[in-house]
Design brief:
Layout lengths: L11 H10 L1 H13 L2 H16 L17
Length: 70
């Protein structure tokens, strides 16, 4: 399945499909677009697209085989 950021926002049909598959995220983006300026929102959207493309491995920074406790 495509991620939220893989859809073409310029195409109304793809936008409807995006909203159908990700209704809560779509509502969040609608509200965010209303709150932010056009440039701010576009910068946020592009950053989220780039972050989505990068693989995430949250444990990669840990070298030891056990959890660190305080």
């Amino acid at each position: 399945m495509r991620s939220f950021y893989d859809f073409n926002r310029s195409n109304p049909q793809e936008r409807q499909e995006q909203y159908k598959h990700y209704p809560e995220l779509a509502l969040f983006h609608i509200a965010l677009r209303e709150e932010l300026g056009e440039e701010e929102y576009n910068a946020f959207y592009r950053a989220e697209q780039e972050a989505q493309k990068r693989p995430v491995n949250p444990m990669s920074h840990q070298r030891k085989g056990k959890w660190v406790t305080a």
